[in-house]
Design brief:
There is one protein chain. The chain has one domain: TIM Barrel (Alpha-Beta Barrel), CATH 3.20.20. Helix content is 37%, strand content 18%. Helix 4 packs parallel to helix 5 and helix 9 runs parallel beside helix 10. The chain is α/β, with parallel strands linked by helices. About 7% of the residues have low confidence. The two termini are 23 Å apart.
């Protein structure tokens, strides 16, 4: 993870004819079968300037599944759920998961119920045909103490119940603090996994982010077999700048041992969604990196 990704999350809480000629099986339910996708944050600048053209380029590379990182005012990259779904469908693509930070503004403690803001989030995710509604951050104020975090995990379980009503599952995506911060002698991540119902709350393990928190992905997959229905497939190298030690790079070029991690996830971690994410490019263009990462995953058998 690089600095811009963390800042992005914190500030965002508030013509290819041949591609469309896909087999009907592409549009089958994606919740129970393995798939290879891309987190659109990888091409964040391109999506901001030209979302349609960028999606077209990704479709040409071969991507059939994407995961959003932009949902504001009930819009995905400026389009309503219905509009964005049609755009993807016309390109032979689907969006089975997405990132929207679940924050304090989404839960009314007095009413012990979700606010309309979160209910709309879930509604629009269902319209998109998502399988997973994933929160990629946990505000510092919600994890000051062990009891604070346990209370939030109770809300996470309730969020899972809400998503289940629409045939989806709530999820959480890690960064690094979950492994470096401890409460009552336990890491935040251990507390989270031990206090969420796996049938309601899935985990999307980011194989790279945790390195900045002093953990290794392979160890976490071994510690919690069957808990990671989705993974952000990411490799890491020493950072060339910024305040973090590591930054992402081309798959297989870093220290993560990515193939071993995802192979174990496939075998014993319950992983069915493999979502490529690379946020730093070492002088290459994002699209060029996505093509290289895609080809590597295909070579690995994904």
């Amino acid at each position: 993870m690089n600095t811009s990704r963390r800042d992005f999350i914190k500030t965002s809480t508030l013509g290819i004819a041949g591609v469309a000629l896909m087999a009907d099986s592409l549009f089958a339910a994606t919740g129970d079968k393995e798939l290879l996708g891309l987190q659109l944050y990888c091409v964040r600048d391109e999506m901001g300037k030209d979302p349609l053209g960028t999606l077209g380029q990704l479709a040409q590379i071969g991507f059939r599944y994407v995961e959003h990182a932009s949902y504001n005012n009930r819009k995905f990259y400026g389009y309503s759920a219905t509009e964005f779904k049609k755009i993807l469908t016309d390109l032979g693509m689907k969006m089975p998961s997405g990132h929207t930070v679940f924050g304090k503004q989404h839960w009314d403690a007095a009413k012990k119920d979700f606010t309309d803001l979160w209910k709309y989030t879930v509604e629009d995710a269902a319209t998109m045909g998502q399988v997973f509604v994933i929160s990629p951050w946990l505000d510092e104020t919600l994890r000051k103490t062990y009891d604070d975090l346990k209370r939030q995990m109770e809300i996470f379980n309730k969020c899972g119940e809400l998503c289940k009503k629409s045939g989806m599952k709530f999820g959480y995506h890690n960064h690094d603090f979950e492994f470096s911060q401890k409460l009552n002698g336990m890491t935040v991540y251990d507390i989270m996994l031990q206090n969420t119902d796996p049938s309601l709350v899935m985990q999307q393990l980011d194989t790279g982010n945790l390195y900045n928190g002093g953990a290794k992905a392979i160890d976490i997959v071994r510690q919690y077999p069957g808990r990671f229905e989705s993974m952000h497939v990411k490799d890491e190298i020493l950072s060339s700048g910024g305040h973090e030690k590591y930054e992402s790079t081309i798959l297989g070029a870093g220290i993560v041992g990515v193939k071993e991690v995802i192979d174990l996830g496939r075998k014993s971690g319950g992983t069915i969604h493999f979502i490529i994410e690379q946020e730093s490019y070492q002088g290459k263009t994002p699209i060029a990196c996505m093509k290289e990462d895609y080809e590597i995953m295909k070579k690995w058998g994904y």
